Amino acid sequence: MRPITVNTLAQRKQAGEPIACLTAYDAAFAGLLDRCGVEVILVGDSLGMVVQGHATTLPVTLEDMVYHVANVARGSENALIMADIPFLGDVDPATALVQSGALLRAGAHMVKVECGAMEVPVVERLVAAGIPVCAHLGLTPQAVHRLGGHRVQGRDPKAAAELESLAAQLENAGAQALLLEGIPESLADVIVRSAGVPVIGIGASPRCDGQVLVLTDVIGLTPEPPRFARDFLVEGGSLEGAVRGYCDAVRARAFPESGVHTFS
Ligand code: KIV
Ligand code: NA
């Protein structure tokens, strides 16, 4: 298998072949995901919850991110490694650039930025510096306190129109992928139809060009998993079976299921 690049992701979108993405935070799980053919390994700041036991992603530092990205990079060969810019790392374009540099030097191939309107110039600056960016919009967990919890976004017409416009602005700013989290399926479909770049979903829509879940939600390690997740270990019987089952379900568009793992 050849290494996955941003070109591979674009080709898969064009060919209508869904992209399988999961999170990992260490070499052992990165190796498992890589062997199973997961295209994108996300070193998410969800490590604040999964690895560190915090209630939110806010305590995660750049140093934490760099440590976990380096571990994942040593454990995987072919997957594209996407790394989150941590809370306030995107407070301005210059800071985001320095933080992205540290993540790429540690082995990431793409950074993910939680985006509102303020982040459009941040994405522009990173792209101008040659850094591939995935723009994360909708439910952005770093804004958990402003949002009043991990709540579905874009439910009223005004908020939906704003997200639709933001997605277009981020793509114009040069984002090479979008990630939609926690928005109504109908809104996700509108964004997917107009996007020219791959759109990865979580709690979004089966029609996204790819899907992502937090690894622990897929292998039965989360006590109260979110409703948009599915435990693949139950059917898969082993860690490898679970990861392969997830990839197969994503590629067959059998996961997520409309109305079961999505919001109306
Ligand atoms: O940190 C993370 O794992 C994420 C995904 C939930 C998209 O950002
Ligand atoms: Na994240």
TrEMBL record:
Predominant place of localization: cytoplasm
Active site: E181 (proton acceptor)
Gene3D superfamilies: Phosphoenolpyruvate-binding domains
EC numbers on record: 2.1.2.11
Catalytic activity: (6R)-5,10-methylene-5,6,7,8-tetrahydrofolate + 3-methyl-2-oxobutanoate + H2O = 2-dehydropantoate + (6S)-5,6,7,8-tetrahydrofolate
GO terms assigned for molecular function: 3-methyl-2-oxobutanoate hydroxymethyltransferase activity; magnesium ion binding; methyltransferase activity
Keywords for this protein: Cytoplasm, Magnesium, Metal-binding, Methyltransferase, Pantothenate biosynthesis, Transferase
Cofactor(s) listed in the protein's UniProt record: Mg(2+)
Entries under Pfam families matching the protein: Pantoate_transf
Any one of the GO BP annotations: methylation
Cofactor binding, note field: Binds 1 Mg(2+) ion per subunit.
Biological or metabolic pathway of the protein: Cofactor biosynthesis; (R)-pantothenate biosynthesis; (R)-pantoate from 3-methyl-2-oxobutanoate: step 1/2
Compartmental location: Cytoplasm
Broad class of enzyme this protein falls into: transferase
InterPro entries listed in its UniProt record: Pantoate_hydroxy_MeTrfase, Pyrv/PenolPyrv_kinase-like_dom, Pyrv_kinase-like_dom_sf
Gene Ontology CC terms, in alphabetical order: cytoplasm
Sites where the protein binds 3-methyl-2-oxobutanoate: D45, S46, D84, K112
Function description: Catalyzes the reversible reaction in which hydroxymethyl group from 5,10-methylenetetrahydrofolate is transferred onto alpha-ketoisovalerate to form ketopantoate.
HAMAP family: PanB (MF_00156)
Family per similarity comment: Belongs to the PanB family.
Assembly and oligomerization: Homodecamer; pentamer of dimers.
PANTHER family attached to this UniProt entry: 3-METHYL-2-OXOBUTANOATE HYDROXYMETHYLTRANSFERASE
Listed name of the protein: 3-methyl-2-oxobutanoate hydroxymethyltransferase
Organism: Thioalkalivibrio versutus
Gene that this polypeptide is encoded by: panB
